[in-house]
Amino acid sequence: MTTTPAQERSHRELDSHHAELIRATLPLVTAQLDRITEIFYRRLFDAHPELSRDLFNREHQLTGRQPRALAAAITTFAAAVTDPTKTRPTAMLNHIAAKHVSLGVTAAQYATVYEHLFAAIVEVLGLDAVTSEVKDAWSQLYWMLAEALIGRETALYDQHGYRPQEMFTPATVQERTTSRANLTEFTISAADPDRALPTPLPGQAVTIGVTMADGARQHRQFRVVATPEPGQITFAVKHIPGGIWPVGEIAIHMIDHIHTGDTVEVSMHTVR
User: Fold this and answer.
1) 9 pLDDT band (50/70/90 cuts)?
2) How far is CA 145 from the centre of its chain?
C-alpha cells in the first residue's frame, strides 16, 4: 500500500501550525460535510461497486445514517486533537472499531477511503481553500484517526484469532417465532462444528449477513434477546412496513425468506 508523507508522520501529534490550520478550516469543512460525504460515497462506489453491494449497508446510505456517522467521526476527532483541553474520543473510537471488525474491514481499505475522501474535499471546497498546507494538515489528521482505529481493530482481530475475511461464519436457523410487538425471533447455532458462535453480553447485537435477491451481500446488526442454550443465539427482527427501497430490505428479507433450517452468516464479533 502506498503511503503519503502525512501518513508516514501520522504517529506524531499535530504540530501547532497544522493544528491551527485545522481549527481555522474546520468551520468551512463542517459547513460542507453533507456535500463532501455525498460526493465521497459516490466516488467510492463508482470506483469500487463491490463495497456498495457487499460491505456498506444500502439502507444506511439511502437514509443518510452512514454519511452522518462519517461526518460526526471526522469533526469530533478534529475538534478533540486540536484542542489541548479535550481528551481523545475513546468511546467513539472503540465503537467504530468494533463495528468495523464485525464487518471484516481491513487496514488497506483506509487508503481507499483516503483517496476518495480527499478528492471529494477538493471538489467541494476548491483548490483555493485546500492549499498544499491545508491538505497536509488534514491528511495527518485523517491518518491519526485511521491509525487509532487500525490499532484497535488489529487487537480485536488478534483477540478472535481470525483474519478480517474470516470474521463471518455460517449459522443454521433452529427456530423461528413471531412474538409480541411485531417481532420475529430467530434462534441460530453454528453450522460449522469447528467454529462456535460468539457469546454475546447483555445488550449486545449480532451482525447478520444475507444474500439479497440481486446477489448483494448485505449486513445488519440485530439485538440479542436470549442465549437459550450454549452455542445458541436468539435475536429479534422488527417488522418494517414497505418504503422506498432499500429501507428495511434486510429485515423484510429475513422475515419473508429465512425459515427454520435455512443458513445465515454471523459475525464472530458482537457489538453494542
Assistant:
1) very low
2) 14
Angle (deg, nearest 10), helices 109-125 and 33-47? 130
Residues 238, 91: Cα–Cα separation, whole Å: 28
Residue 10, C-alpha cell as written in the block: 501520522
Q: Name residue 178's beta-bridge partners.
A: 184
User: Across the chain, how many H-helices and E-strands are there?
Assistant: 10, 6
Q: How far apart are CA 147 and CA 62, in angstroms?
A: 28
Q: Read off φ and ψ for residue 71, nearest 5 degrees.
A: -60, -45
Q: Is the pLDDT of residue 230 over 90?
A: no
Our CA angle for 233, 238, 239, nearest 5°, is 135
E strands of 85-212, at which residues?
A: 168-179, 183-190, 205-211
Give CB contacts under 8 A, 24+ apart, made by 215-220: 215/53, 216/53, 216/54, 216/58, 217/53, 217/54, 218/54, 218/57, 218/58, 218/249, 218/250, 218/253, 219/55, 219/57, 219/103, 219/250, 219/267, 220/57, 220/59, 220/250, 220/251
pTM (2 d.p.): 0.89
Q: Closest by alpha carbon to 227, among 175, 176, 187? A: 187
Q: Give the Cα separation of 176 and 197 in Å (integer).
A: 18
Catalytic-labelled residue, pool 41, 110, 114, 157: 110
Please classify residue 111 by burial: count the beta carbons closer than 10 Å to its beta carbon, then call 0-12 exposed, 13-18 middle and 19+ buried: middle
Which of these is catalytic: 41, 59, 142, 153? 153
Q: Average pLDDT, stretch 30-35?
A: 94
CB 238, CB 183: distance < 8 Å? yes
What are 255-271's pLDDT values in tens digits? 999 999 999 999 999 98
Confirm whether 110 is a catalytic residue: yes
